[in-house]
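User: I'm new to structure prediction. If I give you an amino acid sequence, what do you actually give back? Let's try with this one:
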Amino acid sequence: MYEPIRTKSVHTPADHADDFPHRSREEELDIQLAGHLAALLAVTDELDLGAAGDRIAEQVARLRGAPPARHARPTDAPALALHHRAHALAGRALVVAASRADTAVAILAAERMDAHTVAMATASPARLVGAH
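Assistant: Good question. You get back a string of structure tokens that encode the predicted 3D arrangement of the chain. For your 132 residues, that looks like this:
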């Protein structure tokens, strides 16, 4: 009544499943960490924080095996918004560094979080409840 299916299903496992490279969890974490640090580096360069940017660039180069591209010059973006973004990126890097057990990056990310917390506190005016 029905003709049998003669072609392989898309759900059939491939004959050569080992033909393509697989990355280990460690390699995936390295890629993710390098990405977070590269994004942090871009914001750090926008804020024109040279020494901090150099330290971040060293870690990106270590993880990627090549030096990262650097931002050419500061932009007109508000410093407070950049510090918020940098703080969030440093937090993401800290989480990945902790799961990867990368002490050097974890310390660097925590230091950057602290520095951006201080910068945000001094950049934003204190607002008192009930003050006119």
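You can read the tokens as a compact description of the fold. Here is one thing that stands out. Residues 25-46 form the longest helix (22 residues).
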